Amino acid sequence: MSSLVDDLRLAHVLADQADAITTARFKALDLKVDRKPDMTPVSDADLAVEDALRSTLSRSRPRDAVLGEERGETGFGPRRWVIDPIDGTKNFVRGVPVWATLIALMEDKEVLAGVVTAPALNRRWWASKGNGAWTGRSLSSGTQIHVSEVAWVLDASVSYSSLDGWVEIGRGQQFVDLLQDCWRSRAFGDFWSYMLVAEGAVDIAAEPELELHDMAAPAIIVTEAGGRFTSIDGDPGPFGPGALATTPALHSEILARLTE
Predict the structure, then answer these.
(1) Cis (ω within 30 of 0) for the bond into 241?
(2) Are 173 and 230 within one domain?
(3) How far is the C-alpha of 113 from the C-alpha of 174, rounded, in Å?
(4) Are 214 and 102 a contacting pair, CB within 8 Å?
């Protein structure tokens, strides 16, 4: 049976594989983009990354299940690798460098390890249970990260993806009020919002509509960095609806402000 150290090392190998594919296809003139049934874009790079990582996992961890954004869930058992081949596909297909591959290992409903790799930003973040959160280019050269100590909304920086989702679930006014009360608001979006919270550069990140593959890796990185990661209704972990990541001192107040 593999150790958590071995699993995290494998997650970095998977991240290296993903980086090689995504960087080669980013801004490629022959990039093929289709529409999924929910009308969100999927590129040939999304599919190539997920297929490559699944192939590696089938050899290295044949007993583990895999849940991927593009190919769904395969396999059975308590251990499951959760993959978002390109988080930020809309950015990717338009040439915006804010996108990443998200890789997490879960056992039952607990996230054991996670890696977020953003090669166009030359950044990578990772964490494993009980071992803190880190950033760097490799396991051997990481720098530990921690959330900020900001405790007041008036001092807080908040990052989000868009306002539309908040309006659709009937919490648009609550969210706009929060943005106005915070010290600073920016729409960094997607994975980057949560990595900035983990680094202490942003104090609040929130999105109303996400899937497990969007949240599993960011969740353990934020929590191992000392932050709180819950649904927008306050349930711990990456199971939604949506996600709220904050400093420990801010979390209860932000949840109360965003209550429907």
Answers:
(1) yes
(2) yes
(3) 33
(4) yes
Q: Positive or negative CA dihedral for 132, 81, 228, 208? A: positive
pTM of the predicted model as reported, rounded to 2 decimal places: 0.95
Q: Which two tokens stand for residue 196?
A: 């900035």
In DSSP terms, which residues pair with 41 in a beta bridge? 35
Phi, psi (deg, nearest 5) at residue 208: -85, -20
User: What are the two backbone dihedrals, phi and then psi, of residue 70, each rounded to the nearest 5 degrees?
Assistant: -90, -30
pLDDT in tens, 46-105: 999 999 999 999 999 999 999 999 999 999 989 999 999 999 999 999 999 999 999 999
Q: Partners of 114 in the beta sheet?
A: 104, 127
By C-alpha distance, which of 173, 158, 165, 187 is closest to 242?
165
Q: Give the range of the structural domain holding residue 100, as residue numbers without chain letter.
A: 4-145
The total number of structural domains that make up the chain:
2
Tens digits of residue pLDDT in 16-41 = 999 999 999 999 888 888 887 776 78
β-bridge pairing 123-128 and 143-145: unpaired
The burial class, CB within 10 Å (0-12 / 13-18 / 19+), for 37 is exposed
Query: Residue 217 and residue 133: Cα distance in Å, rounded?
Result: 11
Same domain, 192 and 231: yes
Q: Please name the residue that has the structure tokens 């539309």.
A: 164
**Same structural domain for residues 226 and 159?**
yes
Considering only CA atoms, which of 53, 56, 59, 63 is closest in space to residue 1? 63
